[in-house]
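Supplementary Methods S3. Input chains for the assembly prediction are listed below.
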Amino acid sequence: MNPRSNKWGWLFAAPALALLFFAVILPFAVAVGMTLTNQRLLSPNEVDFVGGENYARLLSLGFTEIPLKLDEGGNPLVSSAGEPLYQSLREIKPSPPEQASFQILKAFDWGDKRYAVLAKDPVFWRALFNTLYFVALVLPIQLCTALGLALLVNANLPGRTTFRTLFFSPVVTSMVVAAIVWTFLYNENAGLINRLLGLITGQENLAINWLGSEALAMPSIVIMSTWQGAGFQMLIFLAGLQSINSELYEAAKLDGANAIQRFFNVTLPGLKNTLVFVLISTTIAAFSLFIQVDIMTNGGPNDSTATLIFHAIRTGYREQDVAYGASIAVVYFILVLGVALLQNKLGGRRG
Amino acid sequence: MAFFAIDCKRICPGGNPGVRTGCYSPEGEIVTSPIRASRRLRLLTSALGGWLFFATPTLLYAQPVTVDLWRHESADAELVANLAAIERFNQQQDSWFVRVETLPQGSYTESITAAALAGQLPCIFDADQPVIPNFAWSGHLMPLDQLLPGNLLNQLLPGATGEYKGTPYSVGQFDVALALFALRSELEKFGIRQASMEAPYSHRELMEILQQIKADQPGSFPIDINSRFDGEWISYGYGPWLQSGGADLIDRISMTRADGVLNSEAAAGVALWYQSLFEQRLAERQPVDDQAFTQGRALLHYTGSWYAQQYADRFGDDLVIMPPPDFGQGPVVGSGSWHWAVSSSCDYPDAASDFLSFLLSDTEIAAMSDATGMIPVTGSAASLTRRYHAEGDWRIFYDYVRAYAVPRPETPAYPKISAAFEKAMLDIKFGRNIQQALDIAVDSIEYDIHRNRGYGFFEESP
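Predicted structure tokens for the full assembly:
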């Protein structure tokens, strides 16, 4: 038999392929099938084929003007604070309970009128935005931190083994435990972070609401996630750094390159493959943000930390609407697949 | 019976921490094991039983039928008391041997849901009362009016039975209640009257009290309403405020309409009161712990009767237990705690019937109450307990349950209702427009009900 025949390759790959098929591909196919039905977790009703209804509910967007609330005489009503009152969406667009109704995704004033972008599932759109926001924040911060730490512990400094262990220790800590501890650290009134900042700035009653304000909740989770995850990327970067031939550095030194030039012209090109791998794996991990949100904020305040996975689990499992949860998961899968392919292509082209 | 005890110890090679389930020998000794090992060894047990059958046929008629039971890994006192009761049951008769497996509490409902889907439910299992209608509607439970005598069911407090469309599917040995805890000395210091069942605080009066304390101690949060908790606490703790204010989570007659109920003016009023607690900084949005009352940081704690033991130990006679605030139609407390249900796949309904009748006897209810401090669910059992007899110091909780209890809506839609209400209240806590938040909850609940063809309630409503 020709030793280069594909047969041997397939044979050796068979166990892994079988595992992939039964553990990933088959369940995914089942999930896709489920998204076309109204399957509930526990129900005596037979399952109906509903076509694209789940996706329509997930992705529908709309737009409307929101009129002012008027009294019987046709004059606009104002609140006790003197602000104009607007009609609720139920008054403008009464929707039968058989259909998922539109909700306000974002309202804005333009001129003297109020408009609103509507969505049938506004939490999905917020979750999508939050997920992308998290990825956009955490990727550069975590990778730069990891690379910086790797450079530090790779340098010939005293005690570097201790530091390697220290920087890596959050990775082996359970994420659940880390999230609970950080919830204490972030506490508005008694948390260590506010107390420390208070000491430094001299404001004794400093009360920054880290996890309780819409603007700060996601960045707080980013900081915590970086702390927890950077040690892992540091280790991979470290392996990459140590595989760079030291003769290259010597040659660069002889050519008169300074430390910064050596970093950009020797270290970074030498790390290219490592960088692409770390970038893709971190991106995928970042897209699946769930534990921190589930424990630290429960998606709040006002959905500002709800992520796609969190939304899928809340609807699919806790509310038992498993077909709809599967639809979110499918959209999530396509998104992650697209981003990974794109990164792979860009990463490959650069070389 | 004796050899079963030995078998069970063999079934569960112990010592592995972090396993998902446990096995209890009839002595109540805890021997944990991975579930698979226990399954595999269960076969061994029957093989061993077979061997004993041939070797010592005299044991045959003494061998009771093994009936499986699952329960959640609750607080220690409750678990130990329950295991002791099961042991008493196993000792007292020869027909049945109830074998216990415990599952972690955090994912317990998910576990029994998965078991129901897989057709693997044990004969008897416990479940949180609000999830019962979902299991009943799905056909996984046996109606208990066929298994238990009517006079036994009728003497129970309403919170001790779980119903779906008027048929009982679960029973509980105990209930819990909601209350306002305070210290007599602190109330006197501020010149605040003590609320009673005859004259509970109205929500306005309570708000004024909190503002008065806040004015005196600007940095403090005078009331702790367990806002650290999310999940079921929101519906259990704040749902009764709606009912007290003349609103509700869903229309109880049709069980299919939330519009005009959950988003009514009355509901919005209650939600506004709740939102003001946080906006006026009378309650903390995200407390760091549940020790605010114990450590004197909060003057009042609105919480469940399960805190009473801890507070009584610490504060003794200084502790005051008061009814929840009245939003207009009298105080309301939620009802229904952990219940026992019988799966429809159970091969031994007689065993389930015997076991549940045993658990609901006055002495057993009283034993559970004495061990855990929970509220007994019959009057005759209450008179046997240390704390709930007519002059007992916690009798007041029994009175609350009798006077104020409104069960959480008994419909399979409850998981959705609870999740939607939780989301609305969390959003309102962080300043979301109240009407908007409640409207969203109403829409999503009604859509869910329609998506599930009324959860069996459509054919009854016109």
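The longest helix of chain B spans residues 35-55. The domain at 70-93+125-171+338-398 of chain B is CATH 3.40.190.10 (D-Maltodextrin-Binding Protein; domain 2).
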